[in-house]
Design a protein that fits this description.
Number of domains: 2
Distance between the termini: 28 Å
Radius of gyration: 17 Å
Order of helices and strands: HHHHEHEHEHEHEH
Number of strands: 5
CATH architecture of the largest domain: 3-Layer(aba) Sandwich
CATH superfamily of the largest domain: Cobalamin-binding domain
Largest sheet: 5 strands, parallel
């Protein structure tokens, strides 16, 4: 049945995927099996995106499906000691911006690919990122922003990490809106992600998982 779940998610069959997850949970299947199926499906979705079979709408739908699956398995996942995470990612939409669709998609895909994700939400001030880096100790920090005014907030956040002596501990990726190489250089980030697939790929590379 897990193979059926991989196919349902990868083919964007939302209702079927959720039905299969519920059936697996009712049968007592470990949430790690479901999570592994989700990871396999997201790999397929990522490949289809890179091959221009899927586009942004499909990635958004995949994010919605993953959100529903995450809500179903979270209670069971917390009780599963066998879960092994690749690393930690801290993510949030920077101060002055409240857009979160893209951030949420990235969070879901990171979770599905084996990362422990701490999402700070939207309109997050630089100091809150600094405190979270100290407490959560992630390897990767994701700064999201759709509005052009977010670029200054991204720069200020990275400068705050530098001032706190934490910049060298993390890799910083920015994303959202019209973020490009010029914005990356302006903010001082390590990389920018055009989409969730790029973000996941970079995170895996940075923690040595690929």
């Amino acid at each position: 049945m897990s193979e059926e779940l991989v196919k349902a998610i990868a083919d964007m069959e939302e209702e079927e995927a959720i039905r299969l997850v519920r059936d697996l949970l009712e049968k007592g299947v470990s949430p790690t099996v479901i999570l592994d199926a989700a990871r396999q499906a997201m790999d397929i979705i990522g490949q289809r995106y890179e091959n221009c079979v899927y586009f942004l709408p499909e990635l958004m739908l995949a994010g919605e499906i993953m959100s529903q699956i995450a809500e179903l398995i979270k209670p069971r996942l917390a009780e599963a000691p066998e879960v092994r995470r690749l690393g930690k990612v801290l993510i949030g939409t920077v101060k002055g911006d409240i857009h979160d669709i893209g951030k949420n998609i990235v969070s879901f895909m990171l979770d599905a690919n084996g990362f422990e994700v701490l999402d700070l939400g939207v309109d997050v001030p630089p100091q809150k990122f600094v405190e979270a880096v100290r407490d959560f100790q992630p390897q990767v920090v994701g700064l999201s922003g759709f509005l052009t005014l977010a670029y200054d907030s991204m720069k200020e956040t990275i400068q705050a990490l530098e001032a706190a002596g934490l910049r060298d501990r993390v890799k910083v990726i920015i994303g959202g809106g019209s973020v490009d190489e010029h914005v990356r250089a302006y903010t001082g980030a390590d990389a920018f992600g055009r989409d969730a697939v790029t973000g996941v790929s970079l995170a895996k590379k940075w923690v040595g998982a690929q």
